């Protein structure tokens, strides 16, 4: 047996007695949450623009420095409502990255629109702007990019392109609440941005999302459309769906938001520990945050270069799983390789996407968040190092200070 396999064999099996998750929800003050839920029960106001939803919207708008926040039941529906409010419907093409969670594409497909997949920019993992430009055609009605893992898209270039072609520009900001671009919070870019507050997200409302925009008229339409087409005066202004956030979700959202700084500090510490412990390991790199910007650090994603590491991402994932570490291959496969898009390449994937293919083979998200402490990060890295080259984890600084690029804005 080789030395590295011996080291792996010498780890206790499983290393962790309980599963270690990537998406364990962050919980703020339980007392505040219960107090808020109790208030809603007292008021007997459970949904339809209740006071907690309004307060949550105000806090999110303030946090993201945007004029309007329209809370919704989840980001997937948020993308649909935003697209519909911009007049996007059956047969309309929307250019989207393939390297994203499939919800981005499905949200469009579900309203009859046609996601057309673009190549990724290797540095950011977001849309390759030159390819987006090549894909713009007579049926293109919008561009929808994603701030993948909280790294901002190429916002300036995309905004210029969208303006030149008279196209609305949406951002799926499901990962990017609390992140910045050119020191400005994500939320105020493009025509509108959509946050997710699903349970696994940095700030959560059990299930939930929000569409944020500086366009007041669009915000009015969004509010009506999420509420069966009814406006503030209870007049039916047009077609709509039910995409409302309810009071219990808002109670959690507010409580979670109050603790966002703490969550960020913990994510930042974990991110730095992973970087330290995996430093110099051949064929494994932690995907970097955007230098000079602030990030919520809610995803710690490694890339596994099979040739250099001596094992494939899937093999490493299986080793981790054997030790109760439930690492996730976000995002693999790319959307263009998922149904229903895979079966209609001419419609959805006019060009080959070799960079997406390559990255989706390499990425692996590791556990972080409030449920993950320094000992857990060290343990995960011991398993990874043992699996790759049998080396021990280096000593690391357990402090929460340091790297400004991964910090929460003041
Ligand atoms: N756009 C992008 C770019 C997205 O990443 C997402 C969602 C969306 C749009 C859509 O947002 P929403 O419409 O949901 O608001 C998870 C999340 O469920 C999903 O929301 C997220 N992206 C995606 C990246 O990750 P799964 O299927 O991997 O989740 P699941 O349920 O398997 O949970 C992941 C881990 O978290 C598991 O190990 C269990 C743990 N977990 C999960 C939940 C829900 C818990 O410990 N407690 C929990 O309550 O998709």
Q: Can you put this structure into words, describing what you see?
A:
With 410 residues, the chain is an alpha/beta fold. It has 2 domains: 3-24 and 260-327 and 367-389, Aspartate Aminotransferase, domain 1; 30-258, Aspartate Aminotransferase, domain 2 (3-Layer(aba) Sandwich), CATH 3.40.640. It contains 15 helices and 14 strands. It has helices at 3-10, 30-43, 51-64, 75-85, 103-109, 129-135, 155-165, 216-225, 247-258, 260-278, 306-309, 313-322, 345-348, 354-362, 374-388, and strands at 20-21, 68-72, 93-97, 114-118, 140-146, 169-172, 180-181, 184-185, 192-196, 209-213, 284-286, 300-304, 325-326, 363-366. The strands form 4 sheets. A 7-stranded mixed sheet has the order 2-10-9-6-5-3-4, sandwiched between helices. Strands 11-12-14 form a 3-stranded antiparallel sheet. Helix 1 runs antiparallel to helix 15 (374-388) and helix 4 crosses helix 5. The radius of gyration is 22 Å and the shape is globular. The termini are far apart. Residues 400-404 and 406-410 have low confidence and may be disordered. Ligand T4K binds at residues 21-25, 74-76, 100-101, 103-104, 146, 172, 174-175, 196, 198-200, 209, 326, 328, 330.
What order do the SSEs take from the amino end to the carboxyl end, as H and E? HEHHEHEHEHEHEEEEEHHHEEHHEHHEH
Distance between the termini: 52 Å
Estimate the helix proportion, in percent: 25-40%
Going across the biggest sheet, name each strand in turn: 2-10-9-6-5-3-4
CATH topology of the largest domain: Aspartate Aminotransferase, domain 2
Number of strands: 14
Rg measurement, Å: 22 Å
Listed once per kind, the bound small molecules are:
ligand T4K
Q: CATH homologous superfamily of the largest domain, by name?
A: Type I PLP-dependent aspartate aminotransferase-like (Major domain)
